[in-house]
Specification:
The protein is 33% helix and 18% strand. By secondary structure, the chain is of the alpha+beta class.
Length: 365
């Protein structure tokens, strides 16, 4: 299958990692997915079934909360950009997204002081729905975050091995905070004249890797990935799996050997739930470190692929920029803070007044 025209998303059985006779085959499959696709399913991943089931079961109740409770935990109250966002609150590729969502993250105290970098204020506490209204949400979310954090670290060791690196190499880039979105896409009525954009075309810019639970059963779908020929490939829901895809920071560190793949969600007639887990990148990571730390390794082991992904990418994929690599800010943390301030200007103006004008108008200079 040509790397420029994948027509389906590969599925990897992670249990093969524990079988010495199957492990080499798993690593070869993973290497293909990393270099040629950027998207994959993982099955038999060891995340407990009850952790996944509890998350799936809590989603309808979370989004059925009264509007007053959603407002109480609204994202605009949080300096960490955590909490509830209503349908249409976010735009992608210039259009409003038809989804509502609640964002959570690894729980930390609000201990930021002015002596710390401004971007460290992104590390902090969640906003939780009232325990009397939805008592099980916090234990469900925290158990899920713990399980996906462990899965992500285990998976990164396999990725490193597939790329001929020592197993722990990629863990040094990780943050102490990972983010989680609980997402509800309302159904779209037949004949609705509005956009069917659940989420517009994008590459994941907020994490190292993304682990997605498609929480609605088949045939409910809508997720699509863009192959290098410019064709949209369906990524249907497969019970018992996670969809895993590369984030832009990982593409930068691998010098384009492992490309982040453009994807989107189309709203359908049925409502849909999904739960992406964004593996956090260390906020202090600099462009110099990201570009230089593994450059020699990838030049030596993948010389034909260095910086090659952009030249084989579709025209639509090339429209999506990397705010970290091509932006004017040196650290991952500041690049992320700028992106969030520009996406949620009410939060930026309220909590980040000393950098708000700089981030909003920096393209004008």
């Amino acid at each position: 299958m040509a790397s420029s025209s994948f027509s389906e998303i590969p599925t990897l059985d992670l249990s093969w990692a524990d079988d010495s006779s199957r492990r080499p085959e798993l690593l070869a499959q993973l290497r293909h997915a990393l270099v040629n696709v950027g998207f994959l399913y993982i099955a038999r991943h060891s995340v407990p079934e009850n952790v996944v089931a509890d998350m799936i079961n809590v989603l309808p109740d979370l989004f059925a909360l009264p509007n007053a409770e959603k407002e109480r935990i609204a994202l605009h109250h949080s300096a960490q950009f955590l909490g509830y966002s209503a349908e249409g609150a976010e735009t992608t590729a210039g259009q409003a997204d038809r989804r509502e969502q609640v964002e959570f993250a690894t729980e930390h105290p609000d201990d930021w002081t002015s002596e710390k970098p401004e971007y460290d204020r992104l590390r902090g506490p969640n906003q939780w729905p009232d325990a009397a209204t939805l008592p099980r949400i916090r234990p469900v979310v925290e158990a899920y975050l713990d399980a996906l954090t462990a899965l992500g670290e285990r998976f990164l060791k396999l990725v490193a091995e597939a790329l001929y690196l020592p197993q722990d190499t990629l863990l040094s880039y990780l943050s102490d905070q990972h983010r989680l979105k609980l997402v509800h896409y309302p159904g779209v009525e037949e004949g609705d004249a509005g956009s069917r954009q659940g989420v517009g075309p994008h590459k994941d810019s907020s994490g190292w890797w993304t682990f997605l639970l498609q929480a609605s059963p088949p045939p409910i779908g809508g997720l699509q990935a863009l192959n290098r020929a410019g064709d949209w490939i369906d990524v249907p829901a497969v019970p018992g799996t996670f969809v895993v895809n590369i984030g832009q920071a990982f593409e930068v560190v691998t010098h384009g050997v492992c490309p982040a793949t453009t994807h989107r969600v189309l709203a359908g007639n049925d409502e849909r739930f999904s739960v992406p887990f964004f593996q956090g990148v260390r906020r202090s990571l600099t462009k110099t470190e990201a570009l230089g730390s593994l450059q020699e390794h990838f030049q030596k082991n993948f010389p034909e692929r260095i910086l090659g992904s952009s030249s084989t990418e579709s025209a639509e994929g090339r429209k999506i920029d990397s705010p970290f690599l091509r932006g004017r800010y040196e650290t991952w943390g500041e690049s992320q803070l700028r992106t969030k301030v520009r996406s949620h200007r009410d939060v930026g103006e309220r909590f980040y007044g000393n950098v708000y004008e700089k981030y909003i108008h920096d393209e004008d200079k």
